[in-house]
Amino acid sequence: QVQLVESGGGLVQAGGSLRLSCAASGRSFSMYTVGWFRQAPGKEREFVSRICWSEGNTYYADSVKGRFTISRDNAKTTVYLQMNSLKPEDTAVYYCAAGSLGGWSPYEYHYWGQGTQVTISS
Fold first, then answer.
1. Is the sign of the CA dihedral 41, 117, 19, 98 positive or negative?
2. Closest CA to 19 of 61, 75, 52, 68
3. What is the pLDDT of residue 101?
4. pLDDT tens across 18-77, in order?
5. 12: which strand partners?
6. What is the pLDDT of residue 20?
7. What CA–CA distances, in Å, run from 113 to 23, 25, 65?
8. How many other CB atoms are there within 10 angstroms of residue 71's CB atom?
9. How many Cβ atoms are within 10 Å of 57's Cβ, its own excluded?
10. What is the C-alpha separation between 110 and 102, in angstroms, rounded?
């Protein structure tokens, strides 16, 4: 089992920054991909970014490329999502997830955190 706990959400103005954290505990993360997804009211959960824990390869949705950066801290078993130049359309609940098959779809992830709210005011 893997337990994931997100933190760092909040309310910021457009153009501002936030850093989300996803702290993991439980099984070794070495075989997993960790992803960030978000879900706005009335919309489907969408892929934001992911990182392969072992190789460190990163991927981003086009909508956040150049603005968001995903990273990991091996010692702390924590994944971060640095979000810059935030826009009102980034408003959503952000979830981190882990999975051995982790790709673009939320169905490829086995473990999920509880989510953290990010609200961007215009």
1. negative
2. 68
3. 82
4. 999 999 988 777 778 999 999 999 999 999 999 998 888 999 999 999 999 999 998 889
5. 120
6. 98
7. 9, 11, 23
8. 14
9. 10
10. 9
